[in-house]
Amino acid sequence: MPSGVLLLTDRRMARRPLAEVVEAAVAGGVRWVVLRDKDLPRAERAALAGDLRAILTEAGGRLIVAGPDPLGGDAVHLPAAGPYPPPPVGLVGRSCHDTTELARLSAENYVTLSPVFPTRTKPGYGPPLHPAGLRELIRVSPVPVLALGGIETPDQVRACVAAGASGVAVLGAIMRAERPTAAAATLSAAAHDRPRPTTTAQGAT
Questions:
Q1: How many other CB atoms sit within 10 Å of the CB of residue 179?
Q2: Which among 70, 11, 72 is positioned nearest to 39, based on CA atoms?
Q3: What's the CA gap between 179 and 166, in Å, rounded?
Q4: pLDDT, tens only, 29-44
């Protein structure tokens, strides 16, 4: 089940070829990657999935493909809009944003909840949940939750984990990084910290 840091891809945002960024992130501790880049032709996207899957498999990680087509693999991440029920593959994630979407879940294994913080990738998308809102949705989620949206710092990662998230999903913090290995290592370390009990998630250190 995804935990720690899950990396979402965006080759247009990446400072290097996508496979190089993923390889660097894996060197920094990332073991879960969602291949987005849905604008690519299927054959080209499938070839990219094969390259990324090889990088992750060697490190004991796993590639998840955004959309219902696993592109030769066995893991998909679906949008809130559908399809319902999800395809019968080994691992299914879904993007959710509120209690209504969480209530539709059936065979999913995990969800992302977003946006937790304001995000540069999707400006104006929201309103942000913030850790307090994230915590409330995690309480009613029937499956493990990864926090998503505007997560760029170790303190933000710790706040999400303190709110009950199994991990965080990030895009720009690693795709845009000049040193993606270092960025991945810093966020991964924060995701595996054991936060001290606090009265609010915002106070997590």
A1: 13
A2: 11
A3: 25
A4: 999 999 999 999 999 9
**Cα gap 147→151, rounded to integer Å:** 8
* DSSP bridge pairs for 112: 95, 146
Residue 36's contacts (CB-CB under 8 Å, 6 or more residues apart) are 8, 9, 10, 66
Q: What is the 3-state secondary structure (H, E, C) of 64-130?
A: EEECCCCCCCCEEEECCCCCCCCCCCCEEEEEECCHHHHHCCCCCCEEEECCCCCCCCCCCCCCCCH
| 120-138 residue pLDDT tens | 765 555 689 999 999 999 9
Token readout for 191 is: 């995701």
The DSSP H or E segment spanning 169 is strand 167-170
Token pair for residue 145? Answer: 């939750």
Q: Please answer whether residues 92 and 107 qualify as being in contact, where contact means their C-beta atoms are separated by less than 8 angstroms.
A: yes
What domains appear along the chain, each with residue ranges and CATH number? 8-203 (3.20.20.70)
What pTM was estimated for this model as a whole? Answer: 0.91
Token duo for residue 193 = 């910290």
